[in-house]
Amino acid sequence: MNKSKLGYKRNSPYKNEPSIQIDSNRITMDQVDFPILGIGDGGEVKMMYPGEEHLFPNSKKVTEIPMMQQGGKLGGFKAKWLKQKFQVGGSPNVQKAGNITFDSNTAKNKNGVLTVTDLETKKPVQVVRNTNGTYKLFEGTTLPTEEEYAKDFYTKFIQSPQYNEINKTKTKAQLTADLRKERPDLFTPEKATLLPSYTQGLDWDTAGDFEKNKQEEIHQVKNTVVKYEPSPEKKGSRYKRVDNTVYVDTKADKQFEPIDILTHELSHSKSSLPGMSGRNFSEKYRVSTVKDAMNPTITGHDSDPDEYKADINALRFKLSRDGYYDPLHNPFTKEILEKAKTDKVFQKNELFKRALKNSKSEDALIEALNSIVQNNQEKTTVAKSGGKIQSFTSKWIQYGR
Hints:
It is a single chain. It is built from 13 helices and 18 strands. It is an alpha+beta fold and 401 residues long. The chain has 3 domains: 1-91, no CATH class; 92-144, no CATH class; 147-169 and 205-399, no CATH class. The strands form 6 sheets. It has a 4-stranded antiparallel sheet. The protein has a 4-stranded antiparallel sheet with strand order 9-10-11-12, with no helix packed on it. A 3-stranded mixed sheet has the order 13-15-14, covered by helices on one side. Strand 3 (36-40) and strand 4 form a beta hairpin. Helix 8 crosses helix 9 (305-321).
């Protein structure tokens, strides 16, 4: 296929080019993972988003300019320049939902529900976006609460391809095959007696166990009670395991946004099931723990690995909600972090600042966002290039990136 046909699709060899001319006035954003500015040769200009379909009726060809190949938000200078040069935002991006049409450029988003204006009746209508980029009418009678929005995110994240990738388990046979590639010398007759020392003590999770635990996590999160008040025992926000209740104390923790407190505490709920002390087992046969990503100089409350892990899960939600990346399908990258660091809102956000401060490095934070789901507070013996990995007591040995 030629460049015009493949465009910026995720598997296109041309996806990193600065611009591409499409020899058609019909543009599909199917299999495209980032926004694109479309400029028709007839003068039409549209900002196009993944999953959408666009027609440039006055044009024969369209020039595509990618806005955010690596995810994130459109920088302020670039956005201003585009508006001045092409009047982006002034040209409607007409979409359909049921029997109405609306301009998605003017939509107002609250907890996943878009309030739009019906172009025919001029009345406000609420719609939601499907995973394939199309829209449908919002069937609820009220907007989702922050609690419903946060629980819905965790439910979708637990069921997502990226969650499966982070927690991807391998059978003993698969890991043995990996080890054969990494250390072929162990499979020679001279060293055959050493092989058991490399795999002794491993308790392999099965696919059935993994799916069962995911469903139990979802059930746990959905049934967690949320109260916007101090906990009965002490001042401040907390998750109380005894009655499966999250207490959000907005006065005691006023430096944090309420939704950040909620998603942090819900993470404690998600991980409160028996046996949830998962480890990530890397390709280099290194067992990493949450502490490996943490700043070793941190003391007090923040030095608890369970608190760091909850910050990581809450930060995933925030980055997703604010449009920086899709943690359900994509890994977090250095480019996304750099964009977030230049965002004035993020610069003032206490959750983001604490995650940066409590991480050993920025690279460690990136790795944490791509690998930490469950918590393991134990330190385990490391065997990076030979030697025995000591006995693992947990059932959840998780093969990670």
